[in-house]
Design goal:
Layout (H helix, E strand, L loop, with lengths): L1 H6 L4 H13 L8 H17 L5 H17 L4 H11 L6 H12 L3 H9 L3 H17 L3 H11 L12 H4 L3 H18 L2 H6 L10
Helix pairs in contact: 2-3, 3-4, 4-5, 5-6, 6-7, 6-8, 8-9, 8-11
């Protein structure tokens, strides 16, 4: 990415900003909200100056602009993630984040389609991240929505006895249903505790 930044037709200060931001965005610091406001504006300015032919850099800038807006709870995040996908951002987390902001906007069907574009374990992994985030926020209905609608191919109790043969998302099933049982035990919703009970494998893995 550094080589793409250096070769881009943008000013030196903007290049230095992108290189610094590339490192900073590895871990977000929620205590520095003012910096995200400033960074979002800079990303917006830089994005407009990058040639549409420079897809890799455009995707990079669009994604991180979206990250800033997401943290700031700004609806512009959705368009930024959409642009990142358009320019083929290489990490599937872009689908996760795009789905996340779509859900917060109440666009559940669009969010569902977004996660379903991912394949295999990648989809399970991203769905699990999103479910964990919703549980931490105590938004249990949204966590259940992701599990039920975005990853609808669930393992039944019989197939969980032999997960490597019949249930390739077994680890996802066990992890997520365990989270649900813990949450609903704490809230006293015992019907849901029973609903999300599965048997663990007794030998096959």
């Amino acid at each position: 990415m550094i080589s793409e930044i250096e070769s881009a037709n943008i000013s030196r200060p903007e290049k230095e900003f992108l290189k610094t931001a590339a490192q900073r965005h590895l871990v977000f610091n929620y205590t520095k909200i003012a910096e995200y406001y400033a960074a979002a504006d800079m990303y917006k300015k830089v994005y407009r100056q990058i040639s549409s032919k420079d897809k890799k850099l455009r995707a990079h800038v669009a994604f991180h602009q979206g990250e800033c807006y997401r943290i700031l709870n700004n609806s512009r995040a959705a368009m930024c993630y959409k642009n990142a996908i358009r320019y083929q951002y290489p990490d599937s987390i872009v689908y996760l984040r795009y789905a996340q902001v779509l859900q917060y906007q109440g666009k559940y069907k669009d969010a569902e389609k977004c996660i379903k574009k991912m394949k295999g374990m990648e989809r399970y992994n991203c769905a699990e991240v999103l479910i964990n985030e919703y549980i931490e926020l105590e938004e249990y209905d949204r966590a259940i929505y992701v599990y039920e609608k975005c990853t609808p191919e669930h393992c039944d109790n019989d197939s969980m006895r032999f997960p490597s043969l019949y249930c390739h998302g077994a680890n996802y099933e066990l992890t997520v249903t365990a989270l649900f049982r813990k949450v609903f035990m704490a809230t006293g919703d015992y019907d849901k505790v029973w609903q999300y009970s599965v048997w663990e494998s007794d030998g096959d893995s």
